[in-house]
């Protein structure tokens, strides 16, 4: 959500006032785009990583308040579930050895936080969905104590008018009902932020959409949910269903979901914010006293708080971000496609692949989105979520191909060129993209390792299902702390 809110009830007048303010924010935003008011020099990048907490049995630990109190670091923040926290990595440059600096910063912060968290009887796990999370853990009391989460829960269920139905067909089948949005907390992701100019934003957003399926195929890390083996990146289907505010009838009518891939390539960032205001009613209609037009008239930068709050309740897999830092506004593409984990070095490899590939595609003379339908990009995305590293995806000039082959033959050279254009040191580029290459060659990512290790313990071993999941998570954590890339993790 990105904003603190404390209202517990909203009136019709609140919703009308909020809608009016969003429209006025849009007018101000359009004027800012025309007047070129955005920071553009030396664009910054950033990373957010959501974490799970486990106890000594590797079951969920509902202790995020205790853990955050023990850590005492503003980089770590609360998340939706009491078994979640998040680390926000300070923005930085990726040129030179910037990615190495970021990697070292993340490792140092996580190691220090892990030592302090252990004093509460908790450990942190960087994984897309915690495999030991079961339906017995999903209840309203599991929401974090921050009142904004209870308020968001109430507003979503007021809009839905009924419980959440989660049905996922994969290797096994899951069908459960929930009376809160806690299942959404099972989805822990890595979010890459890339600051861009208004002129470049549509190119970078379109490029990010085009490669999202490949990102998922190579980086999948969420094969289990509530004890069942489902999709290789089950987090996608779970989030789409757990945060859905539509009734069955509204789905049938074609009303757009709040977790949304989108429906078209764009020509301006304004397209996305305008869609937000046109298609989605407010979940949290909290208005400020700011008149953004008056702020612009006096030469200052408006916060556009209503626009930002509304944007934070619409969960695009590549989200537009407007932010103000030191009174200077800027724009970012927030890439929300990938799960957390398995290791910090895998995360940085995923980041290098993403940053390099979108740079190369965004500046291609013949844009990828001029050769590929938007629906093909969306089909790639969901196929990759289902099949992971075994996925076959469509790519212009290639047709349908294994994602691993596409990456090895076409996309890794493009990502390498893009990192060169960013000014990344050759040694850093080769090390991180080499991890992506080895994942493709060994055909192993986080999801495939989890599944193989689980079946070693359960299908071919003597463990019961729950103990097999616990044993797998224990081994996962050992490798995670060693920071060995997942393609080198053994199954034994």
Automatic annotation (TrEMBL):
Gene3D superfamilies: 3.30.590.20. InterPro entries: GCL_type2/YbdK_subfam, GCS2, Gln_synth/guanido_kin_cat_dom, UCP012666. Coiled coil: none annotated. It comes from the Bacteria. It catalyses: L-cysteine + L-glutamate + ATP = gamma-L-glutamyl-L-cysteine + ADP + phosphate + H(+). This is Gamma-glutamyl:cysteine ligase YbdK (ATP-grasp superfamily). It comes from Kribbella orskensis. The lineage of its organism: Bacteria, Bacillati, Actinomycetota, Actinomycetes, Propionibacteriales.
């Amino acid at each position: 959500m990105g904003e603190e809110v404390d209202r517990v009830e909203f009136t019709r007048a609140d919703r009308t006032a909020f809608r009016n303010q969003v429209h006025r924010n849009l007018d101000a935003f359009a004027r800012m785009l025309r007047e070129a008011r955005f920071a553009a020099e030396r664009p910054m990048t950033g990373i957010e990583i959501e974490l799970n907490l486990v106890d000594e049995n590797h079951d969920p630990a509902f202790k995020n308040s205790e853990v955050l109190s023990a850590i005492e670091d503003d980089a770590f923040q609360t998340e939706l579930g009491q078994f979640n926290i998040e680390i926000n990595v300070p923005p930085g440059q990726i040129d030179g050895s910037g990615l190495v600096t970021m990697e070292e910063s993340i490792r140092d912060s996580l190691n220090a936080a892990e030592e302090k968290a252990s004093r509460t009887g908790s450990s942190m796990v960087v994984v897309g969905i915690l495999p030991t999370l079961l339906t017995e853990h999903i209840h309203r009391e599991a929401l974090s104590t921050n009142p904004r989460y209870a308020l968001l829960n109430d507003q979503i269920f007021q809009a839905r008018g009924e419980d959440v139905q989660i049905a996922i067909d994969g290797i096994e089948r899951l069908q459960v009902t929930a009376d809160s949005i806690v299942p959404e907390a099972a989805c822990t992701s890595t979010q890459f932020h890339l600051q861009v100019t208004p002129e470049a934003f549509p190119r970078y957003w379109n490029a990010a959409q085009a490669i999202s399926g490949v990102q998922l195929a190579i980086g999948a890390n969420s094969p289990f949910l509530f004890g069942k083996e489902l999709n290789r990146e089950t987090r996608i289907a779970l989030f789409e269903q757990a945060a859905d505010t539509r009734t069955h009838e509204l789905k049938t009518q074609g009303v757009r979901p709040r977790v949304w891939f989108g429906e078209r390539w764009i020509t301006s960032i304004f397209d996305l914010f305008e869609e937000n205001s046109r298609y989605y009613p407010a979940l949290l209609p909290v208005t400020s006293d700011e008149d953004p037009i008056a702020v612009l008239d006096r030469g200052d930068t408006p916060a556009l708080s209503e626009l930002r709050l509304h944007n934070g309740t619409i969960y695009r897999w590549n989200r537009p971000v407007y932010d103000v830092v030191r009174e200077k506004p800027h724009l970012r593409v927030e890439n929300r496609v990938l799960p957390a984990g398995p290791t910090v070095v895998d995360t940085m490899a995923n980041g290098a692949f993403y940053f390099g590939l979108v740079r190369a595609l965004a500046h291609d003379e013949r844009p990828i989105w001029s050769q590929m339908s938007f629906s093909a990009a969306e089909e790639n995305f969901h196929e990759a979520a289902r099949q992971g590293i075994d996925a076959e995806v469509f790519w212009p000039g290639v047709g349908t191909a294994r994602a691993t082959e596409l990456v090895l033959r076409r996309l890794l050279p493009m990502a390498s060129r893009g990192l060169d254009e960013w000014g990344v040191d050759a040694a850093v580029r080769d090390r991180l993209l080499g991890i992506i290459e080895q994942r493709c060659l060994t055909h192993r990512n986080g999801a495939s390792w989890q599944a193989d290790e689980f079946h070693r313990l359960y299908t071919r071993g003597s463990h019961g299902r729950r103990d097999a999941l616990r044993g797998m998570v224990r081994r996962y954590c050992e490798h995670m702390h060693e920071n060995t890339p997942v393609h080198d993790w053994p199954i034994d």
